[in-house]
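User: Fold this one for me? It's Helix-turn-helix domain-containing protein.
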Amino acid sequence: MIDSPEVEPAANSDPVENDDRRAKYPPHLVLYTLEGVAAMCGISRSTAYRHLKEKLWPRHRIGTDLKFSEPDIEAIQARYRQAAELRAIRVVGNG
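Assistant: Here's what I get for Helix-turn-helix domain-containing protein.
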C-alpha cells in the first residue's frame, strides 16, 4: 500500500475520516489528485501534466477531474524506478 499525505477528501468529511477510508476500501477505490501523485513521485506538477499529455500515465477521468488509483500510482512509480535504474546503468557504464 502507498503512503500518501493527499488522499482525495470526500465532500463534507472530517480529514481524520479520510485516513480511515484507506483501511475501509480496496486500493482501486481510493483516488488521488494529480498534485498528490506528483508529490509522491517527487516531480513538479507541470512535469506530471506533461506526462499526462504524452499519455505515459494510467488514470481515470471522473467528469472533468483526473484521478489516480493506488494501482495506477504503483505503475507510475515502477516506471520512474525503471528509468532511474537505466540512468544509473548508463552512468556506471560511462564511468
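One thing worth pointing out: The two ends are 37 Å apart (CA to CA).
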